[in-house]
Amino acid sequence: MAVFWSILAAVVIADRGVKLWASATLQSAAALQPLPGLVEFRYAQNQGMALGLLSGNWLASLVLPVAAVVVWLLVGRRYQPTPWKRVASGLLLGGFAGNFADRLLFGYVVDMIYFPWLPWFVCNVADIAICAGVAMLAVSLLFRPRDWSEKHAKDDPAGAP
Fold first, then answer.
1. Residues assigned a catalytic role
2. Which residues pair with 40 in a beta bridge?
3. Which residues contact 161 (CB under 8 A, 6 or more apart)?
4. How far apart are CA 122 and CA 116, in angstroms?
5. What does the CA dihedral 20, 26, 31, 37 come to, rounded to 10 degrees?
6. Rounded CA gap, 75 and 13, in Å?
7. What's the pLDDT tens digit per position in 59-117?
8. 64-80, pLDDT tens digit by residue?
């Protein structure tokens, strides 16, 4: 359980720190190119969800992520907690918390990581954590069936997914 909370907190802290840096440094500057052609840092405000979907629909960009988290928590509680799923859940929920806080406080999410070879995609630390958590769950579903054994009545129902 400590691993879950540690990862969640680390993602939120790293995401907030990088977003503060991007807001202070990149908002009035040209893009930084630490690895030209591979990755750039440029300031962007995303008022929607992934890839700007539902941009301008503030209510949907708050309600849909909350609904997804609730579904994940309800589904996840049916199965035995494993270290793999706790790491994946910490990444997912840490990324959710970082972006959700931005949406709630500012009405947009700060993005800053740009890949020139993916010209339609600008992301942030929270987005990367969410993608890593989803990838871990996909690997878990495909190659780790023991991660998905159902809990028994005697198991602790309060464990993290």
1. 111, 127
2. 114
3. 72, 73, 75, 76, 77, 79, 81, 85, 86, 89
4. 9
5. 0
6. 27
7. 776 788 788 889 888 888 888 888 999 999 999 999 999 999 998 899 899 999 999 98
8. 878 888 988 888 888 88
